[in-house]
Design a protein that fits this description.
alpha/beta; 29% strand; 424 residues; nine-stranded mixed β-sheet; 2 domains; 10 helices; six-stranded antiparallel β-sheet; Aminopeptidase i, Domain 2
Length: 424
């Protein structure tokens, strides 16, 4: 299975933003005969067909059964990661120095962004040579920046009190000490693009360091955006590897943007994206409202996102009976207050599948005195009325610029998802 791990590494390096991720996913789907659909077009769907559609930084791929669907299997992950986003008027000038102003996207581990090689990536809209707006995806890797940390001589108590960062003042990357031009971003873009005028952009700072296998036996993988491109990669690989799809199961893989900021956007899990899609599929397969509701009640959604592994340096941060370990298998995530969607009725089929496959699985519950994060799982369950479970691979250093997983856990997740898709 070394080839699939090598491909995961390539995927992580190819997709520094959600837009790059869906572009790469779309390219891979097309190679497996999935047909692209545009939201604005009139669709013509056929039983047994394979399709995908993109909305912004989100993508939905689906394989239609040859018979009217009686159930659906949905693999849901997200394409975004916590990051630093460039402000609309980014250039800040001080003395002979130019810095870029940034906003914090999501809840990144801010200290991990200091003293690290960073480049810009994202999407830009320009006025092209034909005087038409044109969208381009860019990775501006010919100019590297850094957010310099204050020296210990000027902050003597930092090792005792910890790194305290002001999001406005302390996160600006140093861009130049030789050029003080407010249009420095446009000049940087012109190194890659030819255009009349820069109209707008969504650009993020991203770490330049590539993914790398580490550990005594290279049994771990370190990279930016493991949360949650690992889950997206496994979902995609499972969907396209299915040789004999079910005759009556609708199979879908969702790759959704904006999870790290709440999912309530045009293309997030809280949007109409999936509901619109299910309605269009129902129309083309001649399912009435009654049949659609019955199908949803026989369906299962897997919200696949990363889980907190036990950090050997902070063992008191986990509940003593719920300490997921690296290299010990898939994690099922629970929360009494519905921060995760897992319930007995949705957990049972996954546990049963793990038993059939002889796969290890673990349970995660936050300490009762610590707040719990959330996922798209509860949003999917509430919006769709479909039984949903939250699962994922254990990882360390979540939301940092350098996250860490055990390779075997990824292989176990892929094995499980492939089995669920194949068995229908």
């Amino acid at each position: 299975m070394t080839h699939i791990l090598a491909d995961l590494k390539v995927f992580l390096e190819t997709a520094p933003t959600s837009w790059h991720a869906v572009q790469e996913i779309g390219n891979r789907l097309a190679l497996h005969n999935f047909q692209p659909l545009e939201d604005i077009d009139k669709w013509k769907l056929k039983p047994g067909g394979k399709y995908f559609t993109i909305r912004g930084g989100s993508l939905c791929a689906f394989s239609l059964p040859k018979k009217p669907p009686k159930q659906a299997l949905i693999l849901a992950s997200h394409t975004d990661s916590c990051a630093l986003k460039l402000k609309p008027l980014p250039s800040y000038l001080l003395q002979n120095m130019t810095s870029f102003g940034v906003e914090v996207y999501g809840s990144p581990l801010l200290s991990s962004w200091l003293n690290r090689d960073l480049v810009l990536a994202g999407r830009v809209v320009v006025l092209n040579e034909d005087q038409q707006p044109e969208e381009n995806l860019v990775i501006l890797d010919d100019a590297t920046f850094m957010i310099p940390q204050l020296a210990i001589h000027l902050d003597r108590e930092i090792n005792e009190k910890g790194v305290i960062l002001n999001k406005q003042e302390h996160l600006c990357p140093l861009v130049s000490v030789s050029s003080q031009e407010e249009n420095i971003l446009e000049k940087l873009l012109r190194r890659q693009l030819s255009f009349q005028k820069l109209l707008s952009f969504d650009l993020f700072l991203v770490p330049q360091e590539p993914a790398r296998f580490i550990g005594l036996n290279n049994e771990m993988l370190a990279s930016y955006r493991i949360d949650n491109l690992l889950s997206a990669h496994a979902s995609l690989a499972a969907l396209v590897s299915c040789k004999n799809p079910s005759s009556d199961q609708l199979q879908m893989a969702l790759f959704l943007d904006h999870e790290e900021v709440g999912s309530h956007s045009l293309e997030g899990a809280g949007s109409s994206f999936l509901q619109d899609l299910l309605q269009r599929i129902s129309y083309h397969l001649e399912l009435d409202v009654e049949a659609l509701i019955r199908m949803k009640n026989h369906s299962l959604c897997l919200s696949i996102d990363m889980a907190h592994a036990l950090n050997p340096n902070y063992i008191d941060k986990h509940d003593p009976h719920h300490q997921p370990l690296l290299n010990k298998g898939i994690v099922i995530k629970y929360n009494a207050n519905q921060k995760y969607a897992s319930q007995a009725i949705s957990v049972a089929p996954i546990v049963h599948a793990c038993h059939n496959l002889n796969l290890n699985y673990q349970s995660f519950v936050s300490r009762s005195d610590l707040p719990c994060g959330s996922t798209i799982g509860p949003i999917m369950a509430a919006n769709l009325g479909i039984n949903t479970i939250d699962i994922g691979c254990p990882q360390l250093s979540m939301h940092s610029t350098r996250e860490l997983i055990a390779c075997q856990d990824y292989l176990d997740l892929l094995h499980l998802l492939s089995y669920l898709v194949q068995e229908g």
